């Protein structure tokens, strides 16, 4: 009897439903020095401004980044919350003040014209309707803000919205502050004075001078909550507590061993904080003038301090690229809001045979090392400034070095050790008008590339004989970047090139025509390094945003981004669609955003189940490298 075949079991494809979230992001803090910090009015969130050109908005409870605010083209020196906590100000060395809507992360207004130099300090008035900015141009500007059609906007500059330009300082203005009633202001300057201003008239009520050194600078000023006293921090290592009415010093707080960069009053006005270049935060009892606690956790200068609204915790920002959140009673760090990677390193290169190496240093020299013995073969001295990049030729007989003296040096390494000619400069390649940041030889060694702060990539001819004066000429100057060029690389066939720039982009060039084939754009900070794959079909870029990105050159699309955390112990690899694979503890660095709420992905099971897809990451890479 013939057996009736059983019907085949239908294949059910699992299609998870996408979770209702706004986005996933990687927990990447600042990649460079933190210059300013501020608490939100409710004490639940914080702002930080950094040399990496970004403002970070932090959730303090979780220590996670809610939003990264990116619009400045140079470092951010000062940040402030509006009294209602809905908007923020940032002042930058790009000469602008940005006014941010925190909900959307957008710039409401960028104010560019009135200051002629970098902005060092910003502050909101108590009612949030006006603002102050202090600048390297030695002025304080008082700005008007108005309510219009339910929105907050800056006045148009043409209608005269700089209410007053307060001009009395003879040097840079480093810090500004509003009085609690918004009628007066303080400013601290490199001219060693604190000015107390009447805003309506624009007059100086009092010029406060007591800091000791003739070359001293006042870095920070603050009003007491009652508005009758003030603090100032100075180059002379002291904090001064002032009685404003009399203009006299109530107490001089002396405990720091270096410059005092930031000061703050507690909400009740009885306690003070100071941050210093001695790497400490001091917590002061003002009545006695004693240090209650010295808070030590930073590894570099402390540039900014702030009390929480309740006065029980504090924030500090440092040149070590971190923000510390302190419990004042215990003196412990509650959370350290940190960057993912450390700072820049010097340039090094192996010779083609791997037996020798080059190193370039900020001591203006290139060192040529014998790796077997560890001894120095030669110290190559010709540059007059920092050496930023070094490279061996494909045959190992010559080398290139790029320097902040605006030149590329082409070195002869070919001669024997007894020949004093070895280590001489064959040619100084002089065409850049600013610092040279990167150099590279072509695969055949006949041409070279250099990238510079003058925003150009130069393609050099090295092919001619030593007696031919044409050798060392520029074949093409490649110009498309809007800022410094940090890194250059040749393709394996030598016909195309990559360049990475401070403008956050990677350019892929056709050398023969000098045209840009593709502009690769995904990084949120300067691109510091670029490289081709061996087959020339893909490229890697490394950025100050701490990520490494892999690109498909044919399409110009990002394939994946890779980020390492905790000194390389943990990592996350993520596709542009947010699917990811991570190390065992790497998931702790993935944020889930829903509106302005942020949680770790380990707290959102639905998002974790949907986006944790090693299979999709593997498939994406297999499609490129198979």
List keywords for this structure.
Methylamine Dehydrogenase, Chain H; five-stranded antiparallel sheet; disordered N terminus; 2 domains; six-stranded antiparallel sheet; 2 helices; mainly beta; globular
Topology diagram in text:
Blueprint: E1 23-26, E2 34-39, E3 45-50, E4 54-59, E5 64-70, E6 76-81, E7 87-92, E8 97-101, E9 106-111, E10 119-124, E11 130-135, E12 140-148, E13 151-154, E14 162-166, E15 173-178, E16 184-189, E17 194-198, E18 203-208, E19 218-223, E20 229-234, E21 238-243, E22 248-254, E23 260-265, E24 271-276, E25 280-285, E26 290-296, E27 302-307, E28 313-318, E29 323-327, E30 332-337, E31 347-350, E32 356-360, E33 365-370, E34 376-381, E35 387-392, E36 398-403, E37 408-412, E38 425-429, E39 436-441, E40 447-452, E41 456-461, E42 474-479, E43 485-490, E44 496-501, E45 505-510, E46 515-521, E47 527-532, E48 538-543, E49 547-552, E50 557-565, E51 570-574, E52 580-582, E53 590-594, E54 597-600, H1 605-611, H2 614-625
Antiparallel strand pairs: 1-53, 2-3, 3-4, 4-5, 6-7, 7-8, 8-9, 10-11, 11-12, 12-13, 12-14, 15-16, 16-17, 17-18, 19-20, 20-21, 21-22, 23-24, 24-25, 25-26, 27-28, 28-29, 29-30, 31-32, 32-33, 33-34, 35-36, 36-37, 37-38, 39-40, 40-41, 41-42, 43-44, 44-45, 45-46, 47-48, 48-49, 49-50, 50-51, 51-52, ...
């Amino acid at each position: 009897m013939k057996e009736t075949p059983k019907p085949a079991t239908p294949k059910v494809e699992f299609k998870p439903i996408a979770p209702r979230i706004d986005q996933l992001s990687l927990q990447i803090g600042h990649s460079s020095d933190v210059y300013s910090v501020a608490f939100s009015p409710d004490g639940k969130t914080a702002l930080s401004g950094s040399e990496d050109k970004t403002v970070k908005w932090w959730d303090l409870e979780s220590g996670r980044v809610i939003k990264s605010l990116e619009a400045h083209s140079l470092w951010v020196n000062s940040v402030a919350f509006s009294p209602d906590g809905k908007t923020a100000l940032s002042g930058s060395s790009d000469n602008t003040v940005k006014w941010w809507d925190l909900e959307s992360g957008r710039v409401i207004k960028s104010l560019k014209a009135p200051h002629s130099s970098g902005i060092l300090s910003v502050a909101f008035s108590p009612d949030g309707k006006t603002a102050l900015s202090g600048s390297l141009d030695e002025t304080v500007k008082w700005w008007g803000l108005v309510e219009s059609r339910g929105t907050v906007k800056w006045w148009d500059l043409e209608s005269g919205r700089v209410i007053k330009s307060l001009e009395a300082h003879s040097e840079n203005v480093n810090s500004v502050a509003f009085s609690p009633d918004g009628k007066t202001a303080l400013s601290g300057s490199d001219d060693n004075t604190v000015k107390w201003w009447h805003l309506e008239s624009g007059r100086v009520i009092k010029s406060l001078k007591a800091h000791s050194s003739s070359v001293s600078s006042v870095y920070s000023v603050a009003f007491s909550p009652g508005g009758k006293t003030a603090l100032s921090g100075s180059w002379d290592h002291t904090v001064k507590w002032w009685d404003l009415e009399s203009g006299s010093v109530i107490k001089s707080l002396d405990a720091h061993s270096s410059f005092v960069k930031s000061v703050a009053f507690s909400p009740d006005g009885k306690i003070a904080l100071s941050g210093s270049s001695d790497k400490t935060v001091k917590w002061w009892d003002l009545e006695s003038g004693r240090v209650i606690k010295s808070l030590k956790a930073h590894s570099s200068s402390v540039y900014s301090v702030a009390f929480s609204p309740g006065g029980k915790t504090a924030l500090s920002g440092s040149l070590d690229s971190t923000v510390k959140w302190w419990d004042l009673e215990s003196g412990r760090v509650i959370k350290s809001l940190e960057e993912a990677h450390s700072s820049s390193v010097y340039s090094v290169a192996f010779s083609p045979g791997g037996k020798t190496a080059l190193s370039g240093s900020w001591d203006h020299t290139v060192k040529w090392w014998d790796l077997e013995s560890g001894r120095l073969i030669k110290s190559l001295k010709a540059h007059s400034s920092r050496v930023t990049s070094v490279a061996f030729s494909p045959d190992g007989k010559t080398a290139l070095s790029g320097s902040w003296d605006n030149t590329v040096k082409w070195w002869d390494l070919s001669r024997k050790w007894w020949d004093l000619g070895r280590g001489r400069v064959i040619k100084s390649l002089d065409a850049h008008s600013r610092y040279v940041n990167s150099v590279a030889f072509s695969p055949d060694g006949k041409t070279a590339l250099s990238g510079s702060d003058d925003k150009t990539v130069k393609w050099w001819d090295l092919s001619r004989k030593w007696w031919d004066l044409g050798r060392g000429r520029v074949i093409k100057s490649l110009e498309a970047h809007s800022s410094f060029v940090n890194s250059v690389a040749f393709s394996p066939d030598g016909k195309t090139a990559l360049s990475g720039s401070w403008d956050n982009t990677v350019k892929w060039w056709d050398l023969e025509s000098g045209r840009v084939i593709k502009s690769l754009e995904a990084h949120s900070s300067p691109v510091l390094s670029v490289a081709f794959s061996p087959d020339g079909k893909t490229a890697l870029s490394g950025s100050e945003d701490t990520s490494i990105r892999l690109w498909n050159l044919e399409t110009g699309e990002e394939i994946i981004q890779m980020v390492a955390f905790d000194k390389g112990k943990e990592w996350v690899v993520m596709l542009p669609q947010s699917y990811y694979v991570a190390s065992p503890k790497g998931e702790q660095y993935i944020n889930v955003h829903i509106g302005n709420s942020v949680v770790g992905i380990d707290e959102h099971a639905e998002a974790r189940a949907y986006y944790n897809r090693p299979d999709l990451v593997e498939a994406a890479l297999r499609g490129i490298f198979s």
